[in-house]
Amino acid sequence: MKKVNKRQYTQLYTYVIKEVLVSFFIAFLFFFVIFFVNHIIVMAERILAKHVPVMDVLTLLVCYLPQIIAFSFPFSALVGSLMAIGRFSSDNEILAFRASGVSIFRLFIPVFVLSFIFSSVSFLFNDYFLPIGFIRSSMIYRTLFSRNPELELEPYSAKTYEEKVIITGNVENNRIDDVIIIDKTLENKKRIITAKNAYLLNNKGQEGVISLELRDVFSHETDIHNSNDYDYAFAKEMVYNILIKNIIGPQSIKPSAREMTSLDVWYSIKEKRKKLNERKRTQEEKVQKQLYELAMELQLAREKVG
Hints:
The chain is built from 6 helices and 7 strands; from the N terminus they run ααααβββββββαα. It has helices at 6-46, 54-90, 93-99, 104-147, 244-248, 262-305; strands at 157-161, 164-168, 171-172, 175-184, 190-201, 209-222, 230-243. The longest helix has 44 residues, at 104-147.
């Protein structure tokens, strides 16, 4: 059997790498289009239908690109490798390589090298660009919501925000009809607020707060522990403030571990571990104090008996 020299191995590696890369790019294009179209459909339903400016939507879509690529890259690497190896097998090229003295291990060395490169690129991309895209998209969405609260306050719907329930009628521009708000007062009393209309106010001086100007208001407060203790009031107008973070959810404000860099995750783990150790130390001190007090009480009891 003729021995394969180094130059022929170089040609072999180049050929295999070329086939895998071509298959990878085809698969990447396919998955990227699928996930991209899916994001467009979701945004069309949630954002475009609410008359949000096109440039803001395009900016938000660009910020979502790292998430789309993060999903597309590993699938493309897997499918691309399978497509290339499948073509080698179907065309009997693997058999030809082995007949020429090329071992299976030698044949798959380029695939292993490309897999390592793909993994490294994917890790760097997810560790750097994905958190940046998430933070930027969260900032843009909060800005869009402050300008167009209709993104979350949908017509004829009931939504729970923290400990508040907001029931809305028809929503048009910055006007909401037949509003019902269920929440709790500072005295922990259950409160139900109804209004014929509500208008969304632009609070430039209060960042992170959305204000509803309620018209023809009726408010009913009830003590949770005593249903006979209640208060009610009527008002022509009332301003009701809601924190934006309570409406769009903490997941849109604070990134999860997936949207953080590995260094940030490590710092978060250290911080949580530190808090856990402090809680353990505090708990142990309480236990030791209670044991000491119990021992002193037992000693006093023995002295009285004696």
